[in-house]
Amino acid sequence: MMYDAFDLSEKYRVPVEILSEGSLGQMVEPCVMPEFKEGPGEFDWAYTGKYRHCRAIDLELMPMYDVVNCSEYLRRKHNRIMENEQRWESFMLEDAQYVLCSFGLTSRVTKETVKMLRDRGEKVGMIRPISLWPFPMRAFSELPDTTQALLCVEGNDTGQMIEDVALACKATHRDLPIYLMATGQFTATTRGIIETCAKMKAGELKEVF
Amino acid sequence: MAIARKRPTMIELQPTFCPGCGHGVASRLLAEVIEEKGLLNNFVMAMGVGCCASMRRHWGGEILQCAHGRTAAAARGLKIGRPDTCIVTYHGDGDAYVIGLQETLNAAYTNSNITMIVVNNTNFAMTGGQMSWTTLPGQKTTTSTGAGRQSGVPIQVPEMIVNSFPDVAFVARGSTYCAAEINKTKKLIQTAVDCQIQNKGFSLVEILCQCPTNWGMTTQQACNHIRDVVTKYYPLGILKDVEGDGRQ
Questions:
Q1: Does the CB of A67 have a partner CB in chain B at under 8 Å?
Q2: What is the CATH code for A88-202?
Q3: Of the candidates B121, B216, B204, which has an alpha carbon nearest to the alpha carbon of residue B164?
Q4: Among residues A174, B18, B19, B75, which is most buried (max CB within 10 A)?
Q5: What are the residue ranges of CATH 3.40.50.920 in chain A?
Q6: CB contacts < 8 Å between A and B, how many?
Q7: Residue bearing the bigger pLDDT, B248 or A89
Q8: What's the confidence (pLDDT) of residue B247?
Q9: What share of chain A is helix, strand, coil (3-state, %, to 5)?
Q10: Which alpha helices (H) appear in A57-182, and where do they start and end?
Protein backbone atom coordinates (compact mmCIF):
# COMPACT_ATOMS: atom_id res chain seq x y z
CA MET A 1 0.00 0.00 0.00
CA MET A 2 2.91 2.32 0.65
CA TYR A 3 4.05 1.97 -2.97
CA ASP A 4 0.47 2.62 -4.09
CA ALA A 5 0.37 5.72 -1.92
CA PHE A 6 3.29 7.30 -3.75
CA ASP A 7 2.13 6.14 -7.19
CA LEU A 8 -1.44 7.40 -6.71
CA SER A 9 -0.29 10.66 -5.25
CA GLU A 10 1.89 11.28 -8.29
CA LYS A 11 -0.75 10.05 -10.73
CA TYR A 12 -3.55 12.31 -9.49
CA ARG A 13 -1.39 14.93 -7.77
CA VAL A 14 -3.29 14.63 -4.51
CA PRO A 15 -2.12 13.91 -0.97
CA VAL A 16 -2.51 10.27 0.04
CA GLU A 17 -2.83 9.37 3.68
CA ILE A 18 -2.10 5.94 5.11
CA LEU A 19 -4.12 5.32 8.24
CA SER A 20 -2.48 2.75 10.42
CA GLU A 21 -3.00 1.22 13.84
CA GLY A 22 -1.00 1.53 17.04
CA SER A 23 -1.03 -2.25 17.33
CA LEU A 24 1.22 -2.47 14.28
CA GLY A 25 4.01 -0.99 16.38
CA GLN A 26 3.49 -3.57 19.11
CA MET A 27 3.00 -6.73 17.08
CA VAL A 28 5.77 -9.20 16.32
CA GLU A 29 5.19 -11.09 13.10
CA PRO A 30 7.29 -12.12 10.14
CA CYS A 31 6.89 -9.74 7.25
CA VAL A 32 7.98 -9.88 3.61
CA MET A 33 8.93 -6.50 2.19
CA PRO A 34 8.04 -5.85 -1.46
CA GLU A 35 10.75 -5.60 -4.10
CA PHE A 36 12.41 -2.22 -4.46
CA LYS A 37 11.10 -0.24 -7.42
CA GLU A 38 12.82 2.42 -9.46
CA GLY A 39 11.39 5.91 -9.13
CA PRO A 40 9.45 7.24 -12.13
CA GLY A 41 12.02 9.97 -12.88
CA GLU A 42 11.22 13.62 -13.44
CA PHE A 43 7.65 14.83 -13.81
CA ASP A 44 6.88 17.83 -15.94
CA TRP A 45 5.24 19.46 -12.92
CA ALA A 46 8.21 18.89 -10.60
CA TYR A 47 9.91 21.84 -8.94
CA THR A 48 13.24 22.35 -10.65
CA GLY A 49 14.08 25.91 -9.71
CA LYS A 50 13.79 27.07 -13.33
CA TYR A 51 11.98 30.36 -13.73
CA ARG A 52 8.30 30.08 -14.58
CA HIS A 53 6.02 32.95 -15.31
CA CYS A 54 3.46 34.05 -12.81
CA ARG A 55 0.73 31.47 -12.19
CA ALA A 56 -1.92 34.15 -12.47
CA ILE A 57 -0.93 34.61 -16.12
CA ASP A 58 -0.60 30.96 -17.06
CA LEU A 59 -3.96 29.46 -16.15
CA GLU A 60 -3.75 26.58 -18.59
CA LEU A 61 -0.68 25.25 -16.84
CA MET A 62 -2.08 25.75 -13.38
CA PRO A 63 -5.84 25.14 -13.38
CA MET A 64 -5.89 25.55 -9.60
CA TYR A 65 -5.36 29.26 -10.07
CA ASP A 66 -8.21 29.57 -12.56
CA VAL A 67 -11.10 30.49 -10.30
CA VAL A 68 -13.64 30.09 -13.12
CA ASN A 69 -12.76 26.54 -14.17
CA CYS A 70 -11.18 25.32 -10.94
CA SER A 71 -14.35 23.71 -9.55
CA GLU A 72 -14.95 21.75 -12.73
CA TYR A 73 -11.32 20.62 -12.79
CA LEU A 74 -11.46 19.45 -9.18
CA ARG A 75 -14.82 17.70 -9.69
CA ARG A 76 -13.47 15.80 -12.68
CA LYS A 77 -10.43 14.68 -10.73
CA HIS A 78 -12.56 13.75 -7.71
CA ASN A 79 -14.91 11.65 -9.87
CA ARG A 80 -12.02 9.94 -11.59
CA ILE A 81 -10.58 8.88 -8.23
CA MET A 82 -14.03 7.76 -7.02
CA GLU A 83 -14.40 5.66 -10.14
CA ASN A 84 -10.95 4.07 -10.26
CA GLU A 85 -9.61 3.77 -6.75
CA GLN A 86 -12.21 1.95 -4.63
CA ARG A 87 -10.46 -0.93 -2.88
CA TRP A 88 -11.88 -3.65 -0.75
CA GLU A 89 -11.71 -7.36 0.03
CA SER A 90 -14.79 -9.57 -0.20
CA PHE A 91 -14.66 -12.87 1.64
CA MET A 92 -17.10 -15.78 1.31
CA LEU A 93 -19.88 -13.52 0.07
CA GLU A 94 -21.57 -16.18 -2.10
CA ASP A 95 -25.07 -16.97 -0.79
CA ALA A 96 -24.27 -15.14 2.49
CA GLN A 97 -27.28 -14.30 4.61
CA TYR A 98 -25.35 -12.15 7.02
CA VAL A 99 -22.43 -9.98 5.99
CA LEU A 100 -19.90 -8.65 8.50
CA CYS A 101 -18.08 -5.40 7.68
CA SER A 102 -14.81 -4.75 9.39
CA PHE A 103 -11.49 -2.97 8.91
CA GLY A 104 -8.04 -2.97 10.45
CA LEU A 105 -6.98 -5.30 13.22
CA THR A 106 -10.59 -6.23 14.02
CA SER A 107 -11.04 -7.48 10.47
CA ARG A 108 -8.56 -10.30 11.14
CA VAL A 109 -10.71 -11.56 14.01
CA THR A 110 -13.82 -11.09 11.89
CA LYS A 111 -12.33 -13.10 9.04
CA GLU A 112 -11.45 -15.90 11.45
CA THR A 113 -15.00 -15.80 12.80
CA VAL A 114 -16.46 -16.01 9.30
CA LYS A 115 -14.38 -19.14 8.64
CA MET A 116 -15.54 -20.69 11.93
CA LEU A 117 -19.18 -19.90 11.23
CA ARG A 118 -18.94 -21.24 7.68
CA ASP A 119 -17.50 -24.47 9.11
CA ARG A 120 -20.62 -24.72 11.23
CA GLY A 121 -22.69 -24.33 8.08
CA GLU A 122 -23.85 -20.76 8.73
CA LYS A 123 -24.05 -18.55 5.68
CA VAL A 124 -21.95 -15.51 6.57
CA GLY A 125 -19.53 -13.43 4.55
CA MET A 126 -17.34 -10.41 5.03
CA ILE A 127 -16.51 -7.12 3.34
CA ARG A 128 -13.27 -5.41 4.36
CA PRO A 129 -13.01 -1.86 2.97
CA ILE A 130 -9.38 -1.07 2.19
CA SER A 131 -9.74 2.49 0.90
CA LEU A 132 -11.35 4.84 3.40
CA TRP A 133 -11.91 7.37 0.64
CA PRO A 134 -13.15 6.65 -1.94
CA PHE A 135 -15.34 4.35 0.17
CA PRO A 136 -15.83 1.05 -1.72
CA MET A 137 -19.48 1.56 -2.66
CA ARG A 138 -19.17 -1.07 -5.38
CA ALA A 139 -18.46 -3.76 -2.77
CA PHE A 140 -22.01 -3.36 -1.54
CA SER A 141 -23.56 -3.46 -5.00
CA GLU A 142 -22.11 -6.97 -5.26
CA LEU A 143 -23.96 -8.23 -2.19
CA PRO A 144 -25.88 -11.41 -3.06
CA ASP A 145 -29.70 -11.36 -3.07
CA THR A 146 -29.67 -13.73 -0.12
CA THR A 147 -28.26 -11.08 2.23
CA GLN A 148 -30.63 -10.22 5.06
CA ALA A 149 -28.56 -7.99 7.34
CA LEU A 150 -25.16 -6.37 7.83
CA LEU A 151 -23.11 -6.24 11.02
CA CYS A 152 -20.30 -3.69 11.39
CA VAL A 153 -17.60 -5.01 13.69
CA GLU A 154 -15.41 -2.04 14.62
CA GLY A 155 -12.48 -1.45 16.93
CA ASN A 156 -13.85 1.78 18.34
CA ASP A 157 -16.52 2.78 20.82
CA THR A 158 -19.05 4.57 18.66
CA GLY A 159 -18.97 3.01 15.20
CA GLN A 160 -17.08 5.13 12.71
CA MET A 161 -17.73 3.17 9.52
CA ILE A 162 -21.36 2.23 10.01
CA GLU A 163 -22.67 5.46 8.47
CA ASP A 164 -20.60 4.86 5.34
CA VAL A 165 -21.94 1.31 5.16
CA ALA A 166 -25.50 2.63 5.49
CA LEU A 167 -24.89 5.17 2.72
CA ALA A 168 -23.36 2.50 0.51
CA CYS A 169 -26.45 0.30 1.00
CA LYS A 170 -28.71 3.23 0.25
CA ALA A 171 -26.73 3.91 -2.93
CA THR A 172 -27.35 0.34 -4.07
CA HIS A 173 -31.10 0.64 -3.27
CA ARG A 174 -30.96 -2.18 -0.77
CA ASP A 175 -32.95 -1.63 2.40
CA LEU A 176 -30.97 -3.87 4.73
CA PRO A 177 -30.90 -3.56 8.53
CA ILE A 178 -27.43 -2.63 9.76
CA TYR A 179 -26.18 -3.59 13.23
CA LEU A 180 -23.13 -2.47 15.15
CA MET A 181 -20.63 -4.26 17.34
CA ALA A 182 -18.17 -1.68 18.67
CA THR A 183 -15.30 -2.73 20.92
CA GLY A 184 -13.10 0.26 21.52
CA GLN A 185 -11.52 -0.77 24.81
CA PHE A 186 -10.41 -4.23 23.76
CA THR A 187 -9.86 -6.20 20.57
CA ALA A 188 -12.95 -8.12 19.48
CA THR A 189 -12.86 -11.89 20.07
CA THR A 190 -14.24 -14.60 17.80
CA ARG A 191 -16.50 -15.73 20.66
CA GLY A 192 -17.81 -12.19 21.11
CA ILE A 193 -18.58 -11.81 17.41
CA ILE A 194 -20.29 -15.22 17.27
CA GLU A 195 -22.45 -14.29 20.28
CA THR A 196 -23.36 -10.94 18.72
CA CYS A 197 -24.27 -12.70 15.45
CA ALA A 198 -26.52 -15.05 17.37
CA LYS A 199 -28.23 -12.13 19.10
CA MET A 200 -28.67 -10.39 15.75
CA LYS A 201 -30.33 -13.44 14.26
CA ALA A 202 -32.56 -13.85 17.29
CA GLY A 203 -33.70 -10.24 16.94
CA GLU A 204 -32.22 -9.25 20.31
CA LEU A 205 -29.91 -6.63 18.83
CA LYS A 206 -31.21 -3.18 18.02
CA GLU A 207 -30.49 -2.10 14.48
CA VAL A 208 -28.66 1.21 14.04
CA PHE A 209 -29.81 1.97 10.48
CA MET B 1 8.40 59.38 -16.71
CA ALA B 2 11.78 58.03 -15.80
CA ILE B 3 11.81 54.84 -13.78
CA ALA B 4 13.90 55.40 -10.67
CA ARG B 5 14.63 51.73 -9.98
CA LYS B 6 14.22 48.67 -12.10
CA ARG B 7 11.41 46.41 -10.99
CA PRO B 8 12.70 42.93 -10.07
CA THR B 9 11.84 40.31 -12.71
CA MET B 10 10.00 38.14 -10.24
CA ILE B 11 7.40 40.77 -9.39
CA GLU B 12 5.43 40.36 -12.59
CA LEU B 13 2.14 42.01 -11.68
CA GLN B 14 0.87 44.72 -9.34
CA PRO B 15 1.12 43.45 -5.73
CA THR B 16 -2.17 43.18 -3.85
CA PHE B 17 -0.99 43.90 -0.31
CA CYS B 18 -2.81 46.51 1.78
CA PRO B 19 -1.55 50.09 1.34
CA GLY B 20 1.46 50.70 3.57
CA CYS B 21 2.08 47.02 4.30
CA GLY B 22 5.68 46.00 4.95
CA HIS B 23 5.28 42.82 2.92
CA GLY B 24 5.65 44.75 -0.33
CA VAL B 25 9.08 46.01 0.75
CA ALA B 26 10.20 42.73 2.35
CA SER B 27 9.24 40.60 -0.65
CA ARG B 28 10.81 43.07 -3.05
CA LEU B 29 14.08 42.89 -1.11
CA LEU B 30 14.07 39.12 -1.51
CA ALA B 31 13.29 39.42 -5.23
CA GLU B 32 16.16 41.88 -5.67
CA VAL B 33 18.63 39.70 -3.77
CA ILE B 34 17.72 36.56 -5.75
CA GLU B 35 18.06 38.40 -9.05
CA GLU B 36 21.31 40.12 -8.11
CA LYS B 37 22.83 36.81 -7.11
CA GLY B 38 21.88 35.30 -10.47
CA LEU B 39 19.62 32.70 -8.89
CA LEU B 40 16.50 33.34 -10.99
CA ASN B 41 16.80 29.96 -12.69
CA ASN B 42 17.88 28.07 -9.62
CA PHE B 43 15.47 29.17 -6.92
CA VAL B 44 12.34 27.77 -5.29
CA MET B 45 10.37 29.73 -2.76
CA ALA B 46 8.40 27.78 -0.17
CA MET B 47 5.55 30.10 0.67
CA GLY B 48 3.54 30.03 3.87
CA VAL B 49 -0.12 30.76 4.38
CA GLY B 50 -1.07 34.28 5.39
CA CYS B 51 -0.80 37.68 3.77
CA CYS B 52 2.20 36.42 1.79
CA ALA B 53 -0.02 33.88 -0.01
CA SER B 54 -1.30 36.69 -2.23
CA MET B 55 2.19 36.79 -3.74
CA ARG B 56 1.39 33.76 -5.85
CA ARG B 57 -0.87 36.06 -7.84
CA HIS B 58 1.83 38.52 -8.76
CA TRP B 59 5.15 36.69 -8.35
CA GLY B 60 6.83 34.66 -11.05
CA GLY B 61 9.45 32.02 -10.41
CA GLU B 62 8.96 28.73 -8.69
CA ILE B 63 6.64 29.05 -5.71
CA LEU B 64 5.52 26.10 -3.63
CA GLN B 65 2.39 26.94 -1.69
CA CYS B 66 2.82 24.96 1.52
CA ALA B 67 0.24 23.86 4.06
CA HIS B 68 -0.14 26.32 6.90
CA GLY B 69 2.90 26.26 9.18
CA ARG B 70 4.57 23.38 7.37
CA THR B 71 6.71 25.69 5.27
CA ALA B 72 10.06 24.91 6.90
CA ALA B 73 9.39 21.18 6.63
CA ALA B 74 8.46 21.52 2.94
CA ALA B 75 11.59 23.60 2.35
CA ARG B 76 13.72 20.91 3.97
CA GLY B 77 12.13 18.38 1.62
CA LEU B 78 12.86 20.61 -1.37
CA LYS B 79 16.46 20.99 -0.25
CA ILE B 80 16.88 17.24 0.12
CA GLY B 81 15.43 16.72 -3.37
CA ARG B 82 17.34 19.60 -4.95
CA PRO B 83 20.48 20.22 -2.89
CA ASP B 84 21.94 22.61 -5.49
CA THR B 85 18.88 24.83 -5.69
CA CYS B 86 18.45 27.89 -3.49
CA ILE B 87 15.44 27.24 -1.23
CA VAL B 88 13.97 30.20 0.62
CA THR B 89 10.85 30.18 2.77
CA TYR B 90 8.79 33.33 2.92
CA HIS B 91 6.06 33.55 5.53
CA GLY B 92 4.71 35.49 8.44
CA ASP B 93 5.04 35.12 12.18
CA GLY B 94 1.74 33.26 12.40
CA ASP B 95 2.97 30.62 10.00
CA ALA B 96 6.57 30.33 11.19
CA TYR B 97 6.30 31.05 14.92
CA VAL B 98 2.85 29.92 15.99
CA ILE B 99 1.33 27.26 13.77
CA GLY B 100 4.68 26.16 12.38
CA LEU B 101 6.90 26.62 15.44
CA GLN B 102 7.64 22.90 15.50
CA GLU B 103 8.77 22.89 11.87
CA THR B 104 10.84 26.04 12.29
CA LEU B 105 12.65 24.68 15.34
CA ASN B 106 13.14 21.30 13.70
CA ALA B 107 14.76 22.96 10.68
CA ALA B 108 17.03 24.90 13.03
CA TYR B 109 17.78 21.83 15.15
CA THR B 110 18.83 19.83 12.09
CA ASN B 111 20.72 22.91 10.86
CA SER B 112 19.09 22.39 7.47
CA ASN B 113 20.71 24.34 4.70
CA ILE B 114 17.69 26.57 3.97
CA THR B 115 16.96 30.26 4.35
CA MET B 116 13.87 31.43 6.18
CA ILE B 117 12.46 34.92 5.73
CA VAL B 118 9.86 35.59 8.42
CA VAL B 119 7.78 38.73 8.31
CA ASN B 120 6.75 39.64 11.85
CA ASN B 121 3.82 42.04 12.10
CA THR B 122 2.78 40.99 15.63
CA ASN B 123 -0.61 39.58 14.62
CA PHE B 124 -2.42 37.16 12.33
CA ALA B 125 -2.98 39.79 9.67
CA MET B 126 -4.58 37.89 6.79
CA THR B 127 -7.44 36.50 8.86
CA GLY B 128 -8.33 39.89 10.30
CA GLY B 129 -5.70 40.78 12.92
CA GLN B 130 -6.04 38.16 15.65
CA MET B 131 -3.65 37.86 18.56
CA SER B 132 -0.49 35.88 17.82
CA TRP B 133 2.36 34.81 20.12
CA THR B 134 4.20 37.83 18.76
CA THR B 135 1.49 40.24 19.94
CA LEU B 136 2.92 42.83 22.32
CA PRO B 137 1.58 43.32 25.88
CA GLY B 138 -1.41 45.62 25.77
CA GLN B 139 -1.71 45.45 21.99
CA LYS B 140 -5.28 45.62 20.82
CA THR B 141 -6.23 42.92 18.32
CA THR B 142 -9.54 41.47 17.22
CA THR B 143 -9.14 38.74 19.87
CA SER B 144 -7.57 40.80 22.66
CA THR B 145 -8.87 44.10 23.96
CA GLY B 146 -5.47 45.31 25.12
CA ALA B 147 -6.53 45.21 28.76
CA GLY B 148 -5.67 42.69 31.44
CA ARG B 149 -3.52 39.67 30.80
CA GLN B 150 -4.89 38.56 27.45
CA SER B 151 -1.66 39.15 25.61
CA GLY B 152 1.67 38.13 27.09
CA VAL B 153 5.32 38.87 26.45
CA PRO B 154 5.97 38.02 22.79
CA ILE B 155 7.96 34.97 21.73
CA GLN B 156 11.47 35.60 20.43
CA VAL B 157 12.07 32.71 18.11
CA PRO B 158 15.38 33.98 16.63
CA GLU B 159 16.82 34.33 20.15
CA MET B 160 15.41 30.92 21.03
CA ILE B 161 17.11 29.36 18.01
CA VAL B 162 20.45 31.03 18.68
CA ASN B 163 20.43 30.02 22.36
CA SER B 164 19.24 26.48 21.77
CA PHE B 165 20.97 25.54 18.54
CA PRO B 166 24.31 27.35 18.47
CA ASP B 167 25.48 25.64 15.28
CA VAL B 168 23.04 27.51 12.98
CA ALA B 169 24.71 29.70 10.37
CA PHE B 170 22.96 33.04 10.44
CA VAL B 171 20.10 34.55 12.44
CA ALA B 172 19.22 38.23 12.29
CA ARG B 173 16.40 40.69 12.66
CA GLY B 174 15.71 43.63 10.40
CA SER B 175 12.83 45.98 9.78
CA THR B 176 11.13 47.97 7.05
CA TYR B 177 10.16 51.04 9.05
CA CYS B 178 12.67 53.42 7.44
CA ALA B 179 15.00 53.56 4.44
CA ALA B 180 18.13 52.97 6.50
CA GLU B 181 16.68 49.81 8.08
CA ILE B 182 15.43 48.62 4.69
CA ASN B 183 18.98 48.83 3.33
CA LYS B 184 20.31 46.97 6.38
CA THR B 185 17.63 44.32 6.00
CA LYS B 186 18.60 43.76 2.39
CA LYS B 187 22.15 43.07 3.51
CA LEU B 188 20.84 40.59 6.08
CA ILE B 189 18.91 38.74 3.37
CA GLN B 190 22.00 38.74 1.16
CA THR B 191 24.10 37.25 3.96
CA ALA B 192 21.43 34.64 4.73
CA VAL B 193 21.24 33.54 1.08
CA ASP B 194 25.05 33.50 0.88
CA CYS B 195 25.18 31.19 3.90
CA GLN B 196 22.94 28.76 2.06
CA ILE B 197 24.88 28.95 -1.21
CA GLN B 198 28.09 28.27 0.71
CA ASN B 199 26.45 25.31 2.52
CA LYS B 200 26.97 26.82 5.94
CA GLY B 201 23.60 25.73 7.30
CA PHE B 202 20.38 27.18 8.59
CA SER B 203 19.74 30.90 8.19
CA LEU B 204 16.78 32.97 9.32
CA VAL B 205 15.99 36.64 8.87
CA GLU B 206 13.07 38.06 10.80
CA ILE B 207 11.71 41.29 9.36
CA LEU B 208 9.58 43.53 11.56
CA CYS B 209 6.93 44.89 9.21
CA GLN B 210 4.27 47.49 9.70
CA CYS B 211 0.64 46.39 9.46
CA PRO B 212 -1.32 49.66 9.31
CA THR B 213 -4.60 47.92 8.48
CA ASN B 214 -4.71 45.71 11.56
CA TRP B 215 -2.89 48.06 13.91
CA GLY B 216 -5.48 50.77 13.13
CA MET B 217 -2.77 53.29 12.23
CA THR B 218 -1.58 55.31 9.29
CA THR B 219 1.55 54.00 7.59
CA GLN B 220 3.71 56.65 9.25
CA GLN B 221 2.24 55.92 12.69
CA ALA B 222 2.84 52.22 12.12
CA CYS B 223 6.47 52.85 11.15
CA ASN B 224 6.95 55.01 14.24
CA HIS B 225 5.30 52.27 16.31
CA ILE B 226 7.93 49.77 15.15
CA ARG B 227 10.73 52.22 15.90
CA ASP B 228 9.44 53.24 19.34
CA VAL B 229 7.63 50.17 20.67
CA VAL B 230 8.14 46.94 18.70
CA THR B 231 11.94 47.14 18.63
CA LYS B 232 11.93 47.28 22.46
CA TYR B 233 10.70 43.71 22.44
CA TYR B 234 12.46 42.75 19.23
CA PRO B 235 15.92 44.33 19.11
CA LEU B 236 17.29 44.68 15.59
CA GLY B 237 20.62 43.30 14.47
CA ILE B 238 22.56 40.14 13.82
CA LEU B 239 22.06 37.52 16.53
CA LYS B 240 24.30 34.87 15.09
CA ASP B 241 26.74 34.92 12.22
CA VAL B 242 28.86 31.88 11.60
CA GLU B 243 31.55 34.19 10.22
CA GLY B 244 31.82 36.06 13.50
CA ASP B 245 29.45 37.21 16.24
CA GLY B 246 28.45 40.72 17.18
CA ARG B 247 25.53 43.05 16.67
CA GLN B 248 25.30 45.63 13.94
A1: no
A2: 3.40.50.920
A3: B204
A4: B75
A5: 88-202
A6: 49
A7: A89
A8: 40
A9: 35, 10, 50
A10: 70-84, 105-119, 137-141, 162-171
Interface with chain A: mutation pick from B56, B59, B70, B76, highest number of A CBs within 10 Å: B56
Listed ranges A13-27, A29-43, B27-41; the one with the highest mean pLDDT: B27-41
Q: Tell me if B154 sits within 8 A of B208, measured CB to CB.
A: no
pTM: 0.82
Say how far apart CA B248 and CA B246 lie, in whole Å: 7
Q: What are the domain boundaries of chain B?
A: 23-140+150-241
CA A2 to chain centre: 15
Asked if the interface predicted TM-score (ipTM) of this complex is over 0.85, the answer is no
Question: Does residue A51 contact residue B62 with C-beta atoms inside 8 Å?
Answer: yes
Report the CATH number of the B23-140+150-241 domain.
3.40.50.970
The Cα–Cα gap between A126 and A96 comes to 9
CB contact under 8 A, A49 and B43: yes
Summarised one tens digit per residue, pLDDT across range B170-186 is 999 999 999 999 999 99
Look at B60 and A48 and tell me if their CB atoms are within 8 Å.
no
